[in-house]
Amino acid sequence: MTEKQTIETDIIIIGAGPVGLFAIFEAGLLKLRCHLIDVLAEPGGQLTEIYPKKPIYDIPGFPSILAGDLITNLMEQAAPFKPGFTLGERAESIEQTAEGHFIVTTNLGTVHKAPNIAIAGGLGCFEPRKPPIENLSAFENQGVEYIVKDPEKFRNKRIVIAGGGDSALDWTIFLKDVASEITMIHRRTQFRGHLDSVQKVMDMASNGEIKLMVNSEVTNLVGDYSNQGLTRVGITTDEKEEVTWVDCDYFLPLFGLSPKLGPIAAWGLNISKSAIEVNTLDYSTNIPGIYAIGDVNTYPGKLKLILCGFHEATLMVQSAFKRIYPDKNNVLKYTTVNGIQGF
């Protein structure tokens, strides 16, 4: 067997989601090379794998953009800087050389070497948070769906959506014009999502465009496991003991995803509640040369937003530059004035 050649770069980015992809651009402006490692088979992270057709509303300059289109744009933005990718492999182990560089080896034995590592949302595998319904697993892919990859699957279908976060709110808003009927269920009266999205859902309910049931939860599923699939759900409320039955073709329990750090958790980093602690000066960890940006990190006031991850990536590459060139004066340039070709 031929020994694999070590891939050398300036920054190893673990995670090829939106924040990792934007870091390529910011690093490229400083003439730093990047190589990305991701367990998924293509770049984009959750945006590509889980909800490519979901609209995103908080990207500056885009009133609304589909998650998949955002990844396409970020890849195009990064392309001039010729990043490298190791896809379909998991960053497994890390060691540090005598000169302070890092060696990252994947589960398939691919070796990477760099003076800097940026962990960009590398939360490992995601598992959907499932409600405690006795026969839930029997209807998985037979009417129960935890993610929405293709909205057209729900065209002219009756849908029950459960959840109170951004995912449940956003898909309720988006699928209103796709599904024939939507019932939204939430266990509380207060929602956890963006206030604008909450107001839109409330307005839709007031206008009779959807049915909204709060202080309620789905407790029963009925249908034919092998043929027709799900046909209706049973809903219980705080006000009454009897079950309310709602006919539906699909039940979408959108309670979010449960992330796990995987092998990164054993790298000696300071971790709090499955997130990596960082210094907000440059989003460095307790190990010099290792940074964490995006949803994978934690600090006082942390907001898990893509645009916040973009900010973190920008400061991270400035610090990475100084580690590589400690005696070189880095003058911040403005792309609006110089253009990318000037770098």
Description of the molecule:
This protein is an alpha/beta fold. The chain has two domains: 7-125 and 260-342, FAD/NAD(P)-binding domain (3-Layer(bba) Sandwich); 128-256, FAD/NAD(P)-binding domain. Helix content is 21%, strand content 28%. It has seven helices and 23 strands. It has helices at residues 18-29, 46-49, 67-78, 166-175, 195-206, 306-324, 335-338; strands spanning 7-8, 11-14, 34-38, 55-56, 65-66, 84-87, 91-96, 102-106, 111-114, 116-120, 126-128, 158-162, 181-185, 211-213, 216-224, 229-237, 244-247, 250-253, 257-259, 271-272, 275-277, 290-293, 297-298. It has a five-stranded parallel beta sheet with strand order 6-3-2-10-22, covered by helices on one side. A four-stranded mixed beta sheet has the order 1-9-8-7, with no helix packed on it. Strand 4 and strand 5 (65-66) form a beta hairpin. The relative contact order is 0.16. The model has no long low-confidence stretch (mean pLDDT 90).
